[in-house]
Amino acid sequence: MSKILIRGAKVLGGEAQDVLIDGETIAEVGTGLSAEGATVIEADGQILLPGLVDLHTHLREPGREDSETVLTGTRAAASGGYTAVFAMANTHPVADTAGVVEQVWRLGKESGYCDVQPIGAVTVGLEGKKLAELGAMHDSAAGVTVFSDDGKCVDDAVIMRRALEYVKAFGGVVAQHAQEPRLTEGAQMNEGIVSAELGLGGWPAVAEESIIARDVLLAEHVGSRVHICHLSTAGSVEIVRWAKSRGIDVTAEVTPHHLLLTDELVRSYNPVYKVNPPLRTEKDVLALREALADGTIDIVATDHAPHPHEDKDCEWAAAAMGMVGLETALSVVQQTMVETGLLDWAGVAERMSFAPARIGAADGHGRPVSAGEPANLTLVDPAYRGVVDPADFASRSRNTPYEGRELPGRVTHTFLRGRATVVDGKLA
Amino acid sequence: MMRHLISAADLTRDDAVQILDTAEEMARVADRPIKKLPTLRGRTICNLFFEDSTRTRISFEAAEKRLSADVINFAAKGSSVSKGESLKDTAQTLEAMGVDAVVIRHGASGAPYRLATSGWIDAPVINAGDGTHQHPTQALLDAFTMRRRLVGRDAGLGQDLAGKRITLVGDVLHSRVARSNVDLLHTLGAEVTLVAPPTLVPVGVETWPCDVSYDLDSVLPKSDAVMMLRVQRERMNAAFFPTEREYSRRYGLDGERMAKMPEHAIVMHPGPMVRGMEITAEVADSDRCTVVEQVANGVSVRMAVLYLLLGGNESAVSHTRTEESK
């Protein structure tokens, strides 16, 4: 078995320590560990985190292999420091049967860059009308525990109630894309000052908040847990905060782009900023950061949404919604949360690894950095400063809103069960 | 002068006044037996219309032809666009054929901005109306009409619309005419009031440089010009207001309401009018209504814009004289 010694790494941002990996597990954590027989990585004060876990990734396979495949998506994930990703169900065909989720799960196994945990659709074809065979997907080899119609809202209150109830039988969770469909017909961007000027159809905050309010009340009523995808408004934060204070079993995620970018960017009419839910206002951004810091929002999830060039190289209304995010997520979190003093690195580990692994029940991920645990690890150089160049991405798509922007931090090494998937910032 | 005309908000007061003054020069051409200037001879302008619009397209075409430009009309229907060609490819195809300027009408807000700023083509871009965003030449022709009527044809030269009270009535939410007019009229010093049912006022209007009222009758006596905006039929089934009749009663302009306006005040409409809905025939056909003048002024204003964007720095007047001396 191969041994790797990571020397002088600040584990979760704490004191510098040595971490010895033996085979697939962490053998020892301490100071002055022997390097005998081991490949040595001089961490030199870099931050060592548990491998990151993304609860919200679009890998596009099957169906849109022109934008991403399980292989390219997991390579992007590894580059960004992830050791596990949850693959959303809105593929073609939709991941609403045991067959499709097993296919995605198997492709993930074959990729070898990070673990892929398929998410199953809540309803057949994401149509919101008829429950998909949730139990069959759970019982399949893929072992699905997270269900979501993401991209579409489960807007029918009865279907949502039944889904919340039904998955209790096997410890599942429904992840809701909160978007009241009637209030967002023709919606192109956040409804507010900027949309009024630009003449683009508005996506009002209330369309998200009203669904979240309904769903936390439903979850309370039936005693289920519910997860809220990509929460984007200050009002949503207030509702989740209220729900948690009542003891409702709700968790919530925020995307890196909603922590950094605002709808002012839409003035460029550049569809690289077109995303769903849309970029909101400065007030929302600050509320989301605060909520992530105080635990109202549990996790950061990327909503990595690859699109081919032609789907963004066009007029705003014709463009697809979504941004790639796996390879920039940690840098954005460092800039918006760590360098602002809102979170320390242990807080980052909680929100980007421990908590998402707990919510999604990702076996062997989000574990402490200690002896006997699986060696899923990410080494980050926080002093690094670099300008984002999409040409460097491992993702098949380039639709990043950060092109040309300087972001801090870089993942130098990623380990998946002791095997390096990223070495010195490059895919192994 | 700028390279493109995308938004009325991009014009300074001096830019706008220069366009209006130039348009007055252009208007004189229309009074002559031979309505033509040689200014853009040998230049090719493409009218790239992704949305049906007969009157705007014809107005641009008339302006281009009076400046002696070669004109290519491209309508998206039945073209390669209907077969799935992108805006970028369509524009690049046209530019490869040697187009010197593109006049674009597009259903998507921001499409002209994208065309002008994405590096797809080099030619100047003139926005002939994009989605619910902007229609700058409409705002310019409206301002031109107001200046003529409220300040004077000759007296108006070099002047703006300082202190004039302009009221825009109707579907502000979906109106590029309203957005362009608010921007330009504010730049020209006018005081703008928008009147509409609350459902047809955009969320976010509070930062616009204008007032908003829901009560037409209280605003009319304080208006030097009242511009009625068209209410599209498709709005009627989308709960913006209960019925066509209720809308007319509350926000339509009839003879009785027009009598509440000051004597000198004018009634404007960008057309096409929905008679009986936002405006009665009595008002539309009255002397105070400038609809037909607006159409004529549209050609002069578009000539001025094309001349200033493409014609270089020589004054329009000298060209006029050259033509006359021949």
Which pair of chains forms the biggest interface, and how many residues does each contribute? A-B, 23 and 27 residues
* Overall average pLDDT of chain A: 97
- Number of β-strand runs of chain A: 19
Level of helix content of chain A? Answer: 25-40%
CATH 2nd-level architecture of the largest domain in chain A: Alpha-Beta Barrel
Quick one: CATH superfamily of the largest domain in chain B? Aspartate/ornithine carbamoyltransferase
CATH class of the largest domain in chain A: Alpha Beta
CATH fold title of the largest domain in chain A: TIM Barrel
Beta-strand percent range of chain B: 5-15%
Envelope shape of chain A: globular
Please give the number of β-strands of chain B: 9
Question: Per the principal axes of the C-alpha atoms, what is the gross shape of chain B?
Answer: globular
Q: Look at the structure and name the CATH superfamily of the largest domain in chain A.
A: Metal-dependent hydrolases
Short description:
The complex is a heterodimer of chains A (428) and B (326). Chain A is of the alpha/beta class and 428 residues long.
Show the helix and strand layout.
The complex is a heterodimer of chains A (428) and B (326).
Chain A: E1 3-11, E2 16-22, E3 25-30, E4 38-42, E5 47-50, E6 52-57, H1 70-79, E7 82-87, H2 98-111, E8 115-118, H3 134-139, E9 146-147, H4 157-166, E10 173-176, E11 189-190, H5 193-198, E12 202-203, H6 205-222, E13 226-228, H7 234-245, E14 250-254, H8 256-260, H9 282-294, E15 299-300, H10 329-338, H11 345-360, E16 377-387, E17 406-416, E18 419-423, E19 426-427
Parallel strand pairs in A: 1-4, 1-5, 6-7, 7-8, 9-10, 10-13, 11-12, 13-14, 14-15
Antiparallel strand pairs in A: 1-2, 2-3, 5-16, 16-17, 17-18, 18-19
Helix pairs in contact in A: 1-2, 4-6, 6-7, 7-9
Chain B: H1 13-30, E1 44-49, H2 54-66, E2 70-75, H3 87-96, E3 101-106, H4 111-117, E4 125-130, H5 136-150, E5 165-169, H6 176-187, E6 191-195, E7 211-213, H7 216-219, E8 225-228, H8 244-251, H9 255-258, E9 266-268, H10 281-284, H11 291-310, H12 316-325
Parallel strand pairs in B: 1-2, 1-3, 3-4, 5-6, 5-8, 6-7, 8-9
Helix pairs in contact in B: 1-5, 1-11, 2-11, 5-6, 5-11
